[in-house]
Amino acid sequence: MQVVMVQPVIALVLWTFVMWGWMYATRLPAIRAARMRLDPSAPRGVQMNELPPRVRWKADNYNHLFEMPTLFYAVALTLAGIGDGSGLSVGLAWLYVALRVVHSVFQSLVNRIEVRFVLFASSSLVLLALAVRAAVVVFAAPS
Question: In this structure, are residues 135 and 75 in contact, taking their beta carbons and an 8 Å threshold?
């Protein structure tokens, strides 16, 4: 296993926990300030939509970190498992993580959709390149 290929995976996992902490550090005070009574029978998301957008943005991003990054984890761990720690693969993995962190910070603080889309699309293209790299390595390997 190539540990160097696992490092960006662990970095993104830890970043997800940073977003988790940031989400609750803003959400819990906002819930208290709004004097919300949490209702388990309310439809999903209805009560949280009462919170200010700047509070919801952190939760939205936290949820986003469980979408495309799951593909990143699969691809990066596959490459690590088959022993690929090439500069190209590691560089793409770190670039993906960096773009996701920038996306998180931007969405959580500014949240201009046009810029967010560019960051998301850029990270998705990097992930696609990493997946193609994995396909080349996996399918070109001798059986």
Answer: no
What pTM was computed for the model? Answer: 0.94
In angstroms, the CA 129 to CA 58 distance is 28
Q: Please give the domain boundaries of the chain with CATH numbers for all domains.
A: 3-140 (1.20.120.550)
Is the distance from CB of 79 to CB of 9 less than 8 angstroms? no
**How far is the C-alpha of 138 from the C-alpha of 87, rounded, in Å?**
17
DSSP label at residue 43: P
* Residue 101 scores a pLDDT above 90: yes
Structure tokens at 56: 């919801």
Task: For the beta carbon of residue 50, count every other beta carbon within 10 angstroms.
Answer: 13
Sign of dihedral through CA atoms 50, 55, 59, 61? positive
